[in-house]
Amino acid sequence: MTRYAGNAAAIRALVREQEVHRDVYVSEEVFQLEMEHMFPNSWVYVGHDSQVPNAGDYFSTTIGTQPVLLVRHTDGTVKVLHNRCPHKGTRITSETCGNTGKFFRCPYHAWSFKTDGSLLAIPLKKGYESTGFEQSHAATGMAPVRHVRNYRGFVFAKINDGGLDFEEFFGESLSSFDNMIDRSPVGQLKVAGGVLRYMHNCNWKMLVENQTDTCHPMVAHESSAGTVVEVWKKAPPGTKKPMAVEIIAPFMSPYEFFENMGIRIWDNGHGHTGVHHSIHSDYSAIPGYFEKMTAAYGEERAKAILSENRHNTVYFPNIMIKGPIQLLRHFKPIAANKTLVESWTFQLVDAPDMLLERTLMYNRLINAPTSIVGHDDLEMYERAQEGLHSNGNEWVNIQRLYSPDEVGQTNVTTNGTSEWPMRHQFRAWTKFMTMGM
Amino acid sequence: MTMLAEAPLKNAVPTDQELIDFVVREARLIDQQRFDEWLDLYADDAFYWMPLEWNQTDPRLTCSLMYEDKLLLSIRVERLKGARTFSQKPKSRCHHVLQTPQVDSRDTSANRYVTWTPMHYIETRLDEQTLYAAWATHHLSVEGGKLRIKLKRVDLINCDAAFGNIQLFM
């Protein structure tokens, strides 16, 4: 039975000002419509151009559930191609990344394609003479995603022709990318350290919402961060605080800390926590780093860059970045109740290695399938995914610090425990779901 | 009968059989959830390392699933006892099947003994049971007449796969 396909009114009715219907998390039909409409209408993160430094380098990923390739074309630009052969649909690459040389070659029938996707050659081509092949879908080669933007190394793509252009979609939110990149003395990032892949049996939006949910750390993470605080109390006085304790203990900060940290709201579902301070504010200085930054930018500008403490910046629909520790989490939808979380880390080019070491420690302590902090969160998501099947109440509450005035406001800051970012994400969700319906 | 957490070495230098028995006992303590006794088998400067990459050589500038000193291991053990450790309500259980450990190297003068142990590890919670295949490499030393773990390295056969929660110790 279809309830929502082609029915924009039914989709709009799922999102109220202060609550959302559980079908946004549990309905396979809604999930399929997200893949069909919301993801293709949005600028979705694909990858970083340092993953494909040389001509012919490729990286295989997904936009929503669609397989795509990020590839460095022979002219030096990056392209995003649908990863299927135009002939029979075979996925062209099987390795996650590699170098294809000057062309892709399908392993099934040896059709070949230039690195911009255009058809190069077909064996025994005369078999297609006078068949009208030139007019076929197959003749166009591997279909490129037409709207691709490389923003200072971060590559985004929009599958549909409609929707907003890149600048309009992101607005002022790109300042979080700028700050993360400017933390390199030469203004450049490089993917480094390997990617953590963590399978979640829950809807992808639960993870997105969690990134700005500041009322859960001291509760859900009492088991992990609270234990860190307790164990650390027993250390002999004067013991130097280890990096791991600096990373995990702030999750136990009290409510006032999170209220005062602030939240900023931008356009189209984007926003961040940590306007004034964050759980990353009190990390020890890395020897030699500030000197490098001062030499590169001058003291005043270096201080301005490093005094930003943005905690989690959420880019609608499905990534979060942590500028102060150069980390990107990609919430990849697989099914209504299944999400692959990839946590990527970046090296600040020309900065001390110790920064990458700390970033990697953060990633494995917080985002790994073996992470005690990750265990705390996943337990809650999976319980919610299960609990939402109850018919006792079909609604999820997102009302904390709600005010009717907030509708339509952007580029504003608010209390750090507000659920405004979640309401804001769902307003964007409705907009990009129903756009063109 | 409760197994003793450890057996004293007969001589200053451990025999191959003593190294093998130690590795087997370590797995048994995990399976029996005797985590405090298990933690005592680790030297104060020990590391427990579970690489993320196949043939990984660097734990510092390449990410790992785990690279934990004794402080972090003790935090895990304490967390498992916590009243509000919701991901352990109900608790996980685990089961090791070890191939006989092989003594790869014995360096008496450096006080360093290395064993290699192929294993299957099963972790279960509620209705889910997951099987992992791995190789455990133990770097052991004698401290105060007892064997201690300096480094335990667990290489999963599918270290780069996407996993759900892995909550206990392999």
What is the residue-averaged pLDDT of chain A? 97
Distance between the ends of chain B: 24 Å
Structural class of chain B: alpha+beta
Number of helical segments of chain B? 3
Which geometry of chain A do the CA atoms define? globular
Give the strand tally of chain B: 7
Helicity level of chain A: 25-40%
Largest sheet of chain B: 7 strands, mixed
The percent of residues in helical segments of chain B reads 10-25%
**Cα radius of gyration of chain A in angstroms:** 23 Å
Q: What percent strand of chain A? A: 15-25%
**Mean pLDDT across all residues of chain B, rounded?**
96
Distance between the termini of chain A: 19 Å
Shape of chain B: globular
SSE string of chain B, helix = H, strand = E?
HHEEHEEEEE
Low-confidence stretches of chain B: none
**Which oligomerization state do the chains in this entry correspond to?**
heterodimer
What structural category characterises the helix and strand content of chain A? alpha+beta
